[in-house]
């Protein structure tokens, strides 16, 4: 099963997204956004940036 982004409203009424692996484990979570559309855009930006991203030791 593929991973997925979940967009949700937090306790303070702001919107966040989390990335869940195929096994349901949360592997990343976002900052708070004022709007649901902002959280969707943020998740999309992470999705695009991660495509083909390399792993680098620093």
From TrEMBL:
Taxonomically, the superkingdom here is Bacteria
* Pfam families associated with the record: DUF1508
Domain DUF1508 intervals: 10-57
Q: Which InterPro entries does the UniProt record give?
A: DUF1508, UPF0339_domain, YegP-like_sf
Which residue windows are transmembrane per the record? none
Protein name per UniProt: DUF1508 domain-containing protein
